[in-house]
Design goal:
Elements: H1 14-30, E1 43-49, H2 68-76, E2 78-84, H3 90-99, H4 103-106, H5 123-129, E3 133-137, E4 155-157, H6 174-187, E5 193-199, H7 212-215, H8 220-242, E6 248-254, E7 259-260, E8 266-267, H9 274-277, E9 278-279, E10 281-284, E11 293-300, H10 304-311, H11 326-330, E12 339-343, H12 345-350, E13 355-360, E14 363-367, E15 372-375, H13 391-407, H14 423-431, H15 455-464, H16 474-486, H17 491-503, H18 507-520, H19 525-537, H20 541-554, H21 559-571, H22 575-588, H23 593-605, H24 609-622, H25 627-645, H26 648-661, H27 667-678, H28 682-695, H29 702-709
Parallel strand pairs: 1-5, 1-6, 2-11, 3-4, 3-5
Antiparallel strand pairs: 2-9, 2-10, 6-10, 7-8, 12-13, 13-14, 14-15
Helix pairs in contact: 6-8, 15-16, 16-17, 17-18, 18-19, 19-20, 20-21, 21-22, 22-23, 23-24, 23-25, 24-25, 25-26, 25-27, 26-27, 27-28, 28-29
């Protein structure tokens, strides 16, 4: 059947235009009984716009030029006027998108709850099983592979690069993400694809590059969106020129929005007002969906997966809690959707009450100790709480929410013991403003407290939650001290105070803060590790041992505890014990790159080079860590393959890579000089000997290096 086009005279008036667009969509896509085998399977390009508010895009009414390319996408396809996020936190929101389920079903409520999913199938898994090539291009540490969303992706580009000092970055700009995506598209084989491209630019801190910094100097958040939009345009134009968009469903959707001071808050994780739940959602399918559709009904993040499967004519798994949007695209009657939402961030962090709620347009209920009801049609800013006044509406929404919770599996709102994240990841989450909760909420007596009663504490916490850094100034210490006075019974805040005091070398006061945090959360071994590290910093070896032993007594299977026990024994030259602890750490966390690398180094030191090689290979398969760490592990591998096998070619490859990753590391140059000399390559031996002497003029083998370096 040929594509039907309605003549222009038949489409006059906005109502007619929408009806015509819907009719064309239905006839082109679903008419004439076309079977899936009768047409090519569509590609899927999924663009997720982290931390992007709907009201900052031109197509949603913003009056500044933030989004010309996304506006073009909206004009070419469908704009969902009232799209909703289920949770205003990046990882759980993406987990909802990729599974079509609510957080209570997929189990990820916080960033400290990596997505595991059990029997749930992700969009990538379903499409891969149906012959799709699958690739993801990630912009922030909060979505790297260890958090679980890599399932089903053949290619998962989550290497964010490193800073100038070699430390890993926690996020990267859209330009780098798009470059990764273009490389994959250039190299991929023919056939249908799912490509997920994640953009993180409109996230704190707002610092757009030029010319957007100058253009939006009074509104850097909008400047970040404008920069992101330009990079999206670059990708779409490039794909269009290649012909990759001819049969491609394009979806652009935010995971959540951002509060810019509304309700007294900046950020997105803490509360559940519309500024963080109302998200942009655009969809285009050239020559299949007629341009100009606007869907006014409520739609949800969990509706994305069933919609894609429906448009691709693939079977729906039983797990799905969302609904396909196809009826809305066809103009068929579809019962209004109810949107459920939550945020358990402050519960996980401080033990305060979680937020949960339900929206059935135009009414919205936020359940908390001080519950709220809003009429969004009359009060879109959610400034007038109708709870108590609207008893009928309140009862109806409460019944909806109760029924929803009764249907869902009960899961913990905080990280379970099996969902371990390492210290480096925890620090990365902290730097991005995602402080992990878990065991540190302090007194259980505060469990029913409404976070709205702690609004000043939340504001102060937002100023210092990233922890001390090179940008920390003394006024930050004043802020955290003030916060600790406001919330004296919060273990997380006492620990954060200890971190700041340590940064300013106020060691006795830091120890006091850490000890107070232990009084509030006595079952958390991580706090004991803090005190152990501080004792070691102060030269108190016996104190460090005491705190490590206390942590071990609390949890002898915690990988972080086992790693620190191994480090302590290695420093004490108890190498047999150190090896045992490293191996137990790896048994409990096979992806612990630090344990793999440090055990390999220990085995090399003990002359067991061959045993170190598989450990290093295992670490390379994961290859996390900063450039300095990655360089050092390749240095170790170069030594291992040379000393155990006399494999000059492999050794040179690993050692050369180490010098590229960390030009300031002298050891690889020493070994390269020795190996090249052994192989008779005098010029190369001379070059590396000279480089070694520049970096370590009095280092091991300095005399031999001077001989090789020549005059």
């Amino acid at each position: 059947m040929k594509n039907m086009r309605l003549s222009p005279p038949a489409c006059r008036g906005s109502g007619w235009r929408r009806s015509c667009a819907i009719l064309v969509f239905a006839l082109v896509l679903w008419g004439a009984g076309c079977s899936p085998s009768a047409r090519d399977r569509p590609n899927v390009l999924l663009l997720t716009l982290d931390t992007t508010r709907a009201d900052r895009l031109g197509s949603y009414g913003f009056d500044r030029p933030t989004s010309p390319f996304l506006d073009r996408l909206a004009a070419a396809g469908v704009r969902f006027e009232q799209a909703r996020s289920q949770v205003p936190i990046t990882l759980p929101s993406h987990a909802s998108l990729f599974t079509g389920t609510y957080p209570s079903t997929h189990g990820s409520h916080l960033h400290s709850d990596p997505f595991q999913g059990g029997d749930l199938r992700t969009l990538a898994e379903i499409l891969a099983q149906n012959g799709y090539q699958t690739a993801a291009f990630i912009a922030a540490r909060v979505l790297d592979a260890r958090f679980g969303l890599a399932r089903g992706f053949d290619h998962y580009a989550d290497d964010l690069g490193s800073r100038a000092d070699g430390r890993p970055t926690d996020a990267r700009r859209a330009e780098a993400v798009v470059a990764d995506a273009k490389r994959w598209f250039t190299d991929r084989e023919p056939g249908p694809f799912l490509a997920w491209v994640h953009f993180f630019d409109p996230h704190l801190p707002f610092d757009p590059p030029e010319p957007y910094r100058s253009q939006f100097k009074d509104d850097p958040y909008s400047g970040e969106i404008a920069y992101m939009d330009a990079q999206i345009g670059s990708l779409l134009d490039w794909l269009r020129q290649r012909g990759d968009l001819r049969n491609t469903i394009i979806i652009a959707i935010a995971d959540h929005g951002e509060s810019l001071g509304e309700h007294g808050i900046h950020g997105h994780t803490e509360f559940v007002y519309q500024e963080v739940l109302h998200i942009p959602f655009l969809m285009s399918w050239p020559e299949k969906i007629t341009a100009g559709l606007v869907v006014p009904e409520i739609v949800r993040t969990i509706d994305v997966l069933p919609t894609i499967l429906d448009l691709c004519r693939l079977d729906m798994p039983d797990q799905i809690e969302g609904k396909s949007l196809r009826p809305l695209l066809e103009g068929k009657p579809d019962p209004p959707r109810v949107s459920y939402f939550e945020s358990r961030y402050l519960e996980g962090l401080f033990g305060w009450s979680p937020f949960s709620g339900v929206e059935q347009w135009p009414s919205k209920l936020i359940r908390a100790p001080h519950s709220e009801i809003f009429d969004l049609a009359q009060d879109p800013a959610e400034s007038e709480n109708l709870f108590g006044a609207e008893t009928t509406t309140g009862q109806h929404l409460s019944h909806l929410l109760d029924d929803f919770h009764a249907r869902l599996p009960a899961t913990s709102s905080t990280a379970s013991g099996k969902n371990q994240i390492d210290d480096a990841t925890r620090r990365a989450l902290t730097s991005l403003g995602y402080v992990s909760g878990g065991k540190r909420s302090g007194s259980t007596d505060s469990a029913a407290e409404d976070p709205k009663d702690h609004i000043l504490s939340v504001r102060l916490f937002q100023q210092v939650m990233g922890g001390p850094s090179t940008r920390t100034v003394p006024t930050d210490l004043d802020t955290i001290r003030g916060l600790a006075r406001l919330e004296p019974d919060q273990a997380n805040i006492q620990q954060l105070l200890g971190d700041y005091l340590w940064h300013f070398e106020k060691f006795p006061a830091a120890a006091t803060a850490f000890e107070r945090s232990i009084e509030l959360a006595p079952d958390d071994p991580a706090l004991r590790l803090k005190l152990a590290a501080l004792a070691r910093k102060r030269g108190d070896t016996s104190g460090a041992q005491q705190h490590l032993s206390a942590a071990y007594e609390l949890d002898a299977s915690d990988p972080a505890v086992l790693f620190e026990m191994a480090e302590h024994e290695a420093r004490a030259q108890n190498y047999s014990l150190a090896e045992q602890y490293y191996r137990r750490c790896i048994d409990n966390d096979p992806e612990s790159v630090p344990a793999l690398g440090h055990l390999a180094a220990l085995l090399l030191f003990l002359g067991r080079e061959a045993e170190s090689i598989p450990l290093l290979e295992q670490s390379f398969a994961l290859d996390r860590g900063d450039r300095q760490d990655r360089a050092f592990r390749r240095y170790l591998m170069g030594i291992a393959v040379w000393d155990s096998r006399q494999d000059a070619a492999s050794a040179i490859t690993y050692l050369t890579k180490a010098t590229e990753l960390n030009p300031g590391l002298p050891g690889p140059h020493r070994y390269l000089a020795l190996i090249h000399a052994e192989q008779g390559r005098k010029a190369e031996a001379t070059r590396h000997a000279r480089q070694y002497l520049q970096l370590a003029p009095d280092g091991p083998d300095a005399e031999k290096m001077r001989t090789l370096a020549g005059p």
